[in-house]
Amino acid sequence: MGEFKMDKPITYADSGVNIELGDDVSKILYNAAKQTWDNRKGRLGELIVPFDDFSGVRAIDVSNLPTGTLMNIGFDGVGTKMELAERINDHRTIAYDLFAMVCDDAVVRGAEPVLIGSILDVNSLRNANGSFLEQVKQLAEGYINAAKSANVAIVNGEVAELGNRIGGFGQFNYNWGAAVVWSS
After folding, report:
1. Inside any domain, residue 128
2. Hey, CA dihedral for 75, 37, 100, 54, is it positive or negative?
3. pTM over 0.85
4. How many domains does one find in the chain?
5. What is the 3-state secondary structure (H, E, C) of the chain?
6. How far apart are CA 114 and CA 42, in angstroms?
7. Residue 5: Cβ-neighbour burial (10 angstroms; 0-12, 13-18, 19+)
8. Given 10, 107, 119, 141, which is the most exposed site by the fewest CB atoms within 10 A?
9. Position 4 in a domain
10. CATH number at residue 98
11. What is the pLDDT of residues 118-172, one digit of tens each?
12. Closest Cα partner for 151 from 183, 119, 103, 95?
């Protein structure tokens, strides 16, 4: 067998990942998430925030729930629906589709959606013409509005640049999945 040699270490930048731009995107989505926390104020799912950052711990106090209260978590994603947003270059409503996928799974079981976390996988956060921060801001706007409509709080999320593993129409390509915590 041949020997593997690397001339120089491969960096994130070599892979097409821009750490600083990723940090900017995380700040946009984190600030959007913070705007949803009041959706659960005074209710099951009111957030306790011991660490105030996008990946930090947020929790709910379940110590006084009545006997027989159930909690569960469900996962889903928007699937190919984001192609509509890509084709019209308007990403403000795709969060409604994301939340519908996870929240409806709870509602059909007679449960109440409480908390949501998401994973946004993007091809890249920039191209030769600049960054996709405007599109991310549109996603964040929809995130806030969809959470208000669903009466849930967004507790955390992840953004990952995956290069050619994510494709689609146009320049800004992504896949968005989420998890919902629900109770009944």
Report:
1. yes
2. negative
3. no
4. 1
5. CCCCCCCCCCCCHHHCCCHHHHHHHHHHHHHHHHCCHHHHCCCCCCEECCCCCCCCCCEECCCCCCCCCCEEEEEEECHHHHHHHHHHCCCCCHHHHHHHHHHHHHHCCCCEEEEEEEEEEECCCEECCEECHHHHHHHHHHHHHHHHHHCCEEEEEEEEECHHHCCCCCCCCEEEEEEEEEEC
6. 12
7. exposed
8. 10
9. no
10. 3.30.1330.10
11. 999 999 998 888 899 999 999 999 999 999 999 999 988 889 999 889 999 999 9
12. 103
**Number of CB atoms found within 10 A of residue 88's CB:** 11
- Who's near 175: CB < 8 A, 6+ residues apart? 77, 78, 82, 120, 121, 166
Residue 40 is assigned to a structural domain of this protein = no
**Do 30 and 54 touch, CB atoms closer than 8 A?**
yes
Rounded distance between C-alpha atoms, residue 39 and residue 32, angstroms: 13
Strand 174-183 versus strand 71-77 pairing type: antiparallel
Domain assignment present for 53: no
Structural domain including 168 reads: 71-184
Q: What is the CA radius of gyration of the chain?
A: 18
The answer to which of 2-6, 74-78, 119-123 has the lowest mean pLDDT is: 2-6
Distance CA 95, CA 169 (A): 18
Which residues, in sequence order, are bridge partners of residue 52?
Answer: none
Structure-block tokens of residue 160: 């990952």
CA 18 – CA 10 distance, rounded (Å): 13
